[in-house]
Amino acid sequence: MSTADLAGIQAAANVDARGSACPGPLLEAKKGIGKVKVGEVLEILSSDEGTRTDIPAWAGKVGHEYLGYVEADGYDKHYVRRKK
Which residues form the UPF0033 domain (predicted)? Predict the structure, then answer.
């Protein structure tokens, strides 16, 4: 997805893991995905650069769809669609 597409996504829920170091953002994402229904999107806010590789790897491993991320002011907004 393009940055413009990602910026227009309406997330069903979000988790704020800014300021948390690895594996904090990943653990928050794992808890947060349970808050959204199948087909909905979870937004993960993270200032840890490791999240850029951790979240896509986790999503693929467990069967969710990683949509991408958008850079914000000092953090990233990651988007994952729940698939199961």
Answer: 15-39
